[in-house]
Amino acid sequence: MSISSRQLNYLVWRYLQESGFELSSYALQKEAHPQQLEKDLGEKVAMGTLITLVQKGIQLTQLEQNVQKPDSVRSTADRKVYTLLNALDQELVEPDTPSSREYTPPSDILRDKDNEGDQEMENSVGKESTPLEPSNEIPTNESNSSKVTAHQPQDNHQQHNNEPNWNTEVVYEGAPVSAAQWSKDTVAVGSTNVELIDMNTKNTVTLAQPSSIPENEVTVISWSHDGSLLATASFDGQISVWTSDGKLRHVLSLHGSPVLVLKWNDDDSSLLSVDCTNRLVVWDSASGDIRQRFQPEPSNLPLEAPPSTTSSGTDAGWIDSTTYAATDGVNIVIYKLGEPKPLLQFQGHSQGINSIEFDTYSQLLCSGSDDHTVRIWNGKASVPVHTLVGHSGPVLATRWLMAPDSLSQVLDPEARRPAIVASASIDGTIRVWDAYSGQCLNLLNAHKSPIFFCELSPNGKYIASAAVDGVVMIWDFSKGPQQVDLVARHEKAPGGEASGLSVLTWSEDSTRLFVSYGKGVVLKLANDL
């Protein structure tokens, strides 16, 4: 069979689009550019072609094994050379001739910055941050929810210098890291094992995984707030709870699918776990017993929803010590310990929800979705109070910011503190919103690739963002949401490892980042901010 790598990339790209894997298809599109074959192959390649070819390949292999005899002789004229689409009785045309069919990208979610180079970043040095003016375009309210549309992107950050303001140190080399979290002076790193790295002595303790499945990848790691307990979950759904010195306390076995979320409540008395089938379990941290469990019905997605909306539960979080929220497809469900049924369901997103976070001060919940919107909920209604429109790609992370005290609060202690939320998208931007008014206050667009990570520092002063190209940036929010400074930028880790990141976590003192690149090299990035 004759097939070029470009043709294979095109078929895989088409398969990812047909299956609704928007992020994966976009990543392949940016790296391999399979869309360049769309003009010539788009009308020739039917839906499901990759699967059909694989099936036919299996059949032809079996046929060859059954009928090819060692003594048989064929003339070369009888032999047929299979090209990419011969098995489907279609003629493959290489993209050498122009076509009248114009190519329209499946999703225009990232501004093309390939030709801009680094000159734009250098020119931004010393420029003042310019906040976005509130948009005058506010559509009519629907179902008591206001929809706010932001202005088009522009440079809205100040960079103090264009040198990577980092001290880097390799502290771990091993299998590709799938999860990690910092607690005090210890980083828990998960791959096929869990290792505790003392960041002062660099000593490492390897935890003995109780799973009977070899090479069982760790999917998520979560330290308790006081740092005394560590919860780890593996691909087979098993959860282990360890003491801070690496002793196994509990093995929690109820999930039969990969666990995606582990969250401790405020007093560390309960551990919430969510797997990829949306099963939720709340565990008693002292005894290891099950306090509550739910298995939401998967039928709550609209029938007309495209495949990308059928995403599993991808985030959950505690509202208080007994109440928690979890994603369920396109909805957010509120649960309470001791209640046999969910308390409330938030409806409004049209595609899968990637991030939810509750703000204890404003008592508001924010969510980011594949439908490119951020929504603000207040718990008094099942529809959002604001739908924030501005991103041109799926929103992967939302974070509440600790806004500095305003002058009005100094004069009047009873004045309402601002409620500010930041959202990061694969369109390569971070937007900063006023959750009360729904207005976009600032736009941070220094990244040139989709942003996959956005983490607030424990002191509330910085946000660390990391893009698919491996670039890490630190944003200083201490002057307020409308005067954000880009204070550090890290291009690529030393040693020539892969550029993509898989883990990003802050130290408790907000001075260091623990970052993992694709080949298992984890860096401690120290920075004098």
TrEMBL record:
Its main location: nucleus. GO terms for cellular component: Set3 complex. The keyword Repeat applies. The keyword Repeat applies. One of its GO terms (molecular function) is transcription corepressor activity. Pfam families: ANAPC4_WD40, LisH, WD40. Keywords: Nucleus, Repeat, WD repeat. Residues 151-164 have a biased composition (Low complexity). It is found in: Nucleus. WD repeats lie at residues 215-242, 252-293, 346-387, 421-443, 444-485. Residues 89-164, 295-317 are annotated as: Disordered. Residues 189-266 form the Anaphase-promoting complex subunit 4-like WD40 domain. Residues 137-149, 307-317 have a biased composition (Polar residues). One of its GO terms (biological process) is regulation of transcription by RNA polymerase II. PANTHER family: F-BOX-LIKE_WD REPEAT-CONTAINING PROTEIN EBI, WD40 REPEAT PROTEIN. This is ARAD1B23892p.
